[in-house]
């Protein structure tokens, strides 16, 4: 292979030249013909040479014509609800990302993942090659059913649908229940991608102010009366971005209002495993009557294993399964579902989750003290998870700071990307697991100081 | 573990009972405490026992309350465009499935897949745990760009977006370009899931009769004038279900008409690798001006590795990337993209594809002779691929036969699921790779005979 590569680079062989026959080359090099054939196949797979059936191998007609320009951070991009997602995804693995929504790679159960992969390499052919069943791997659905049962939610495996991701679970539910022009309630602030998703569905989005105990009930009730929304989309436990948790009385009242106004609730429970103890859940109180629960394992086990799930009423699950076949043919990669199931049933899983919770507690305390030094204080004290929702001092504009930080390779999550009302200008969401690099605090402090300093040439001393 | 399980089964331990302490149990059994802790963790992961933080392990409060009723074939289901998909997905791996749209598991490159998995088990942490970049793994995008280039289509890696599947590629394009109430042209017959997908988008579907050379040009032009469709969705090479291939003059004329009527074309090129030689492509002739090309590797490498791609204009790829973040956060599982890339660049890949083509040629000839014995003849002689689109003798109703065959565990694909006009009653699509089991022919022959026999008590002898 090296010989051929060298001869092409030095132009001893040029485009269209026929390569020596496999047999001839083998004789010259004193190796077996199969060794040469294998080397040619690798070069062909790399696109350096071409196989023409019956005629032999030739130097590829043209080199690959495109420079590889990889997508990096998009500095000029408007700070909209998609801003944080694309910046965090494309920032590269080395950049500090206090704005992103996941844990660092070395927090994940890498040893269990590797074990599961090695075991899967010996799985039956069908697991490695076939589409799997329309609702997704039975073993993982049974396991999810059991996890829900342990949380007090009776949901048989047949009422669990696996999806391509947690986001896709929400998307499928929206596709089933919503039509363009419908109105949906979200929390203000809420997970930025709820807004991006609902916009893709051409939905009218109405925000309800979120309090440390859940949605503001007066405003929630007023919005139901005024806007007749079809759906309320929320996280109940360890709410994104605030880290708050709905209280039992508020949860009860939200459900009563929902019943009164024929409102469906979608509870995205993606942070459930980070709770120190079980908090009230709308799906559990309601028993999947008018609440749909969604989730995934991207935050706790691996985001590289794309798989989400929907737990809902049986007739809705049937409709969602048809819909998923129509738009995606099947759900997650069956291999991915197998790997997740293997990691979930690995004896190390419980300890991994406990270790995550403990490490996050320590990290949260550290980050909080680091931020306090900069005059940044959390809006609420979260019970768990990796977010701190904070107000910047001096009314600083978080979007301007985030834009400046990106120039220095730091991805931040400014408040207004989470806010339908755009009223969160001085707020910022910090991921405490991504603040370990001391440079984060330094850069942030410097930008904050520059932002709150009186503009030069301004009104001068009082 | 067996000891605990036995004691629970025999009700020596009941719900809520505390298990012996790890240390006590280890001493009694003469093993190390870590061995016992590991066993308890496995039982906890199985849901048989519960760990209460600080208090030890307890027998789980209630056994799993649900009988596991797995989804099997749905016998009562209406024969609609989703019928074949759900029946084939849920039939189980042992049922003969001449109606399904994939190759048997032992045709797939299982050894290369296992090699790739073992290699991936040693990949860097980030590959195993992170979301990856917004457009998907750079290596696979570069490889797809090169495959397209080899087919004469200049499309740089930045104009390739990886998606969760081939179907999802089509779905994303529809989401970008269509609004409810828009009109889309499809071939009559066409892949049944095109109809299911477009219905999910609330699109008006107009069918254009398909000829052995491509769409009927007169009817195509008339439909453009009459219905002002936004999009034409088709497969050009080895068309599904007919196996026909568009001719160069028809392709040229379709593009000219599209330009004249400002029509966008989506070319789903999922069967490209099965062609014996390169046929005309709309995307190649057009150069991605008004044609979007989609594809996947589910048919040739593995359907368990869910991943598709879109090749399109740069500005469209940017919009599609935003849209994919909004509805799915990212694309395929990064692990899956890595595995696919490894199999594609494995030296064995070219030989695998060549072997598939040869085996399909033999299979096609065999199946054709088997079907000829039953009086079933193909509508066109396909150049490659695994479909034979056939007319049943005596005007038999293919849907009735498919429904009866399902009772005997045989999944068939009746003509009208592919037909917008519902004019394909006596047609059936056969997957030649799934006809190796001789029972297929026997069952089919028997059902066909019953269907075409004069009904008893009918008009009697003439």
Ordered list of secondary-structure elements with their pairings:
The structure is a homodimer of 462-residue chains.
Chain A: H1 2-9, H2 22-29, H3 33-45, E1 49-52, E2 56-59, H4 83-90, H5 110-120, H6 125-129, H7 138-150, E3 160-163, H8 166-177, E4 183-188, H9 192-200, E5 204-211, E6 214-215, H10 217-227, E7 231-234, H11 248-260, E8 264-268, H12 282-286, E9 291-296, E10 308-311, H13 314-328, H14 334-344, H15 349-373, E11 377-378, E12 387-391, H16 398-407, E13 413-414, E14 427-431, H17 438-452
Parallel strand pairs in A: 4-5, 4-7, 7-8, 8-9
Antiparallel strand pairs in A: 1-2, 3-10, 5-6, 9-10, 11-12, 12-14, 13-14
Family (chains A, B): In the C-terminal section; belongs to the class-I pyridoxal-phosphate-dependent aminotransferase family.
Pfam family, one (chains A, B): Aminotran_1_2
Keywords (chains A, B): Aminotransferase, DNA-binding, Pyridoxal phosphate, Transcription, Transcription regulation, Transferase
What can you see in these coordinates?
Chains A, B: This is PLP-dependent aminotransferase family protein. The structure is a homodimer of 462-residue chains. With 462 residues, the first copy, chain A, is an alpha/beta fold. The first copy, chain A, contains 17 helices and 14 strands. The relative contact order of chain A is 0.13. At the A-B interface, helix 3, helix 4, helix 5, helix 6 and helix 7 of A face helix 3, helix 4, helix 5, helix 6 and helix 7 of B.
């Amino acid at each position: 292979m090296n010989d051929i590569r060298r001869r092409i680079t030095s132009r001893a062989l040029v485009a269209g030249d026929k390569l020596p026959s496999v047999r001839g080359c083998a004789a010259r090099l004193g190796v077996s013909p199969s060794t040469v054939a294998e080397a040619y196949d690798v070069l062909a797979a790399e696109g350096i040479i071409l196989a023409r059936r019956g005629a032999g191998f030739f130097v590829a007609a043209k080199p690959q014509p495109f420079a590889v320009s990889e997508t990096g951070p998009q500095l000029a991009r408007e700070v909209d609800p998609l801003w944080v997602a694309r910046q965090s995804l494309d920032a590269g693995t080395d950049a500090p990302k206090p704005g992103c929504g996941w844990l660092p790679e070395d927090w994940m159960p890498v040893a269990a993942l590797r074990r599961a992969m090695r075991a899967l390499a010996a799985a039956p052919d069908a697991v490695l090659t076939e589409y799997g069943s329309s609702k997704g791997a039975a073993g993982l659905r049974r396991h999810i059913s059991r996890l829900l049962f342990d949380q007090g939610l009776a949901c048989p495996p047949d009422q669990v649908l696996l999806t391509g991701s947690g986001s896709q679970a929400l998307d499928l539910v929206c596709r089933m229940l919503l039509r363009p022009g419908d109105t949906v309630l979200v929390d203000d602030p809420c997970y930025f991608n709820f807004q991006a998703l609902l916009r893709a569905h051409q939905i009218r989005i109405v925000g309800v102010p979120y309090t440390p105990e859940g949605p503001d009930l007066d405003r929630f009730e007023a919005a139901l009366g005024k806007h007749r929304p079809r759906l309320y989309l929320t996280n109940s436990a360890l709410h994104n971005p605030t880290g708050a948790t709905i209280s039992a009385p508020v949860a009860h009242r939200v459900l009563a209002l929902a019943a009164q106004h024929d409102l469906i609730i979608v509870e995205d429970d993606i942070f459930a495993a980070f709770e120190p103890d079980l908090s009230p859940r709308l799906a559990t109180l309601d028993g999947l009557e008018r609440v749909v629960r969604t989730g995934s394992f991207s935050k706790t086990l691996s985001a590289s294993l794309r798989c989400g799930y929907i737990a809902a009423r049986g007739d809705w699950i049937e409709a969602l399964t048809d819909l998923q076949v129509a738009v995606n043919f099947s759900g997650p990669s069956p291999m991915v579902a197998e790997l997740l199931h293997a990691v979930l049933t690995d004896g190390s899983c419980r300890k991994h989750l406990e270790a995550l919770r403990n490490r996050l507690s320590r990290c949260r305390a550290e980050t909080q003290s680091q931020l306090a030094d900069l005059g940044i204080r959390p809006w609420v004290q979260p019970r768990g998870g990796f977010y701190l929702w904070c107000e910047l001092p001096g009314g600083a504009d978080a979007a301007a700071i985030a834009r400046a930080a990106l120039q220095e390779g730091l991805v931040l999550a400014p408040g207004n990307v989470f806010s339908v009302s755009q009223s969160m200008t001085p707020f910022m969401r910090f991921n405490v697991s991504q603040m370990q690099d001391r440079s984060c605090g330094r850069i942030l402090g410097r930008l904050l100081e520059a932002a709150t300093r009186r503009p030069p040439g301004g009104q001068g001393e009082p």
